[in-house]
Amino acid sequence: MTDGRLRTAIAVLALAGAAVAAYLVYARYTGTRLACTTGGCETVQHSKYAKAAGVPVAVLGLVAYLAVFGTTLSARIEAAAICAAIVFAGLAFGIYLIVIQVAVIDAICQWCITSDVILALLAIASAERFRRAAAKP
Amino acid sequence: MKDLLKKRWVLYAGVAVVALAVAGALIGVSVTGGSKKKEKSAVTTTATGGSKTTTSPGFAVTGAADTAALFRGIPQKLNVLGNPNAPVTMVEFADLQCPFCREYTLQALPTIVKDYVRTGKVKLVFSGMAFIGPDSEKALRAAYAAGVQNRLWNVIDLLYKNQGGENSGWVSDDLLRAVGTAAALDVGRMMADRQSPSVDNALTATSQQAANAHVNQTPTFFAGRTAGGTLSQVPVTSLTPEPFQQALDALLK
Q1: Which of A15, B94, B102, B153 could form a disulfide with B160 if both were Cys (CB 3.0 to 4.6 A apart)?
Q2: Range of the domain at B97
């Protein structure tokens, strides 16, 4: 895969993640009921863990996904580094939130899991992008 | 700077440090509660008259682990606990300040939950009343506000486990925040929802149901086949599991 295609793949994944996060933000601020097959989305979204420092986690996710998308507009190594840092920070926080859902809240939100899968794919792609950028002379 | 960027290990280490720092900060903020309102500490008075401040509001309540274990994995929807399609429904009219309701909750409820609710045979409906006094309504509003987040049963269980003297002011905001934290709720939202129209409506509706059913003491229980529509009063000879087991077993036959 060429560098350009790799960045395109990251951009597409970032937009997919942003769409999930945007839906959760929309539902939160309009009071719309979430489409949910796991039955735990409302419980998770209304738990205290759905906010960090008073900011809804979905808003943080939306900003992060858009920032990742922004980095794909540049081929510079700094952009690849920022992209990898955001994605891996998001992945670590996402794993923490899965543990919280299973062990503390006792409810699973399918939208969070969808976002985590996108983050895992982004982690692979952004790590490869960063590795290639760092390997260039 | 450019020379530094050319060193691969510096790049990798830089990305790893930034990623870990951001993730660590987010997790730290999430664990500690984040907003100022949530960081507000609960204050408990010691026997010597002094006071100690707990770092977490959850520390001030007792029974949090037992309550979490009792209801873990059981669906909740507003004031209903258990499988929505359970063949039998049991309604409890209770006042959160009533010591007999507490006795039932501590002695009989765990067995009912384990043998009938967790197995999907029975669903429980909590109908709160506030006839003992101001602390009853304060506790009830918090319970129904927790119901908006589908955690009413955790909150009423914790309130019973931490029940104080009638109208002694035991239902303080600090206690409610600590109970909400122990129930993994969005505490700020629960505190705000106490005065919401939906909670007002729930209180009015329950009060009307109690009047229609001629409930004049708590706890009072009604049970029946969910599909049948009519519920009959459960004859309660003691606040232990036995009378409830008899009534529920008869309905499940």
Answers
A1: B102
A2: 62-252
